[in-house]
Design brief:
Number of helices: 6
CATH architecture: 2-Layer Sandwich
Radius of gyration: 17 Å
Helix content: 25-40%
Order of helices and strands: EHEEHHEEHEEHHE
Strand content: 35-45%
CATH topology: Alpha-Beta Plaits
């Protein structure tokens, strides 16, 4: 079974640009299946704001063959050591909706899952550039919904020009996340995500899009002054 990681780290401009232009590949890194390097964005930030693309705050979403491969990358490569100075979570796959070529082969689901268990959700999309204005119009209310939701312990977005966008969110339970998606949360304007999905079905914003759901396995490091970002049953 493949492992996945999501990383956040503050790096030099040179490291960030190199990673964005030439992300690590399976040919270069033993045990790496695929990696997406992106710049962090703050969910809900104004469109014309430096918070929209924080180039020195690098994110990486990756699939791996083993924990050993992850450890060797983090300890034995320049980019890995830069990422190791930040925070990352290791993930076990649970469920897929949609399709991205680079993550072909994942099943739709591994089977029955505990609705009260913590979960990490990752979206990854390749934008249709003419649809970016529509995507922003419908997406910004969803960003605020996820960012402010009482069921999330951390939520962020990321992008790589010209057309890759991603979201990352940690939830106290799968139930909280599913209720948000379906518009059933007890929050103001709970239908924001559901309405955006209806609009996407009417006319797609992307030419490829997937939502992936994961079981958090372990987290490492510190990010924005925080540790223990992933909740446990006891921590609520």
């Amino acid at each position: 079974m493949k492992l996945f990681t999501f990383h956040f780290a503050k790096v030099s401009i040179g490291t960030a640009v190199k990673a964005l232009l030439r992300p690590p590949t399976s040919a270069q890194v033993p045990g790496l299946v695929h990696a997406e390097c992106m710049s962090k964005m703050t969910l809900g930030a104004p469109i014309l704001s430096p918070e929209r693309m924080q180039i020195r705050q690098l994110t990486m979403f990756a699939s791996w063959e083993s924990d050993t491969a992850i450890d060797d990358f983090l300890g034995g490569t320049q980019l890995g050591r830069a990422l190791a100075a930040g925070w990352h979570v290791r993930l076990g796959f649970l469920r897929r909706w949609g399709h991205i070529t680079e993550f072909d082969g994942l099943p739709e689901s591994i089977g029955e899952q505990d609705p009260e268990a913590p979960v990490v959700a990752v979206t990854l999309a390749r934008m249709r550039l003419p649809q970016v204005p529509r995507f922003i119009w419908w997406g910004k209310p969803v960003e605020s919904l996820v960012r402010d939701h009482p069921g999330t312990t951390y939520a962020a977005a990321a992008m790589r020009l010209p057309n890759t966008v991603s979201t990352f969110s940690v939830w106290t339970s799968q139930r909280e996340m599913v209720d948000m998606v379906r518009g059933h949360s007890e929050v103001p304007q709970p239908e924001r995500h559901a309405a955006a999905m209806v609009e996407r079905q009417r006319k797609d914003f992307h030419f490829e899009f997937t939502t992936l759901r994961f079981r958090p396995l372990a987290e490492y490091g510190e990010w924005e002054g925080r540790t223990h970002i992933v909740p446990t049953r006891d921590s609520g």
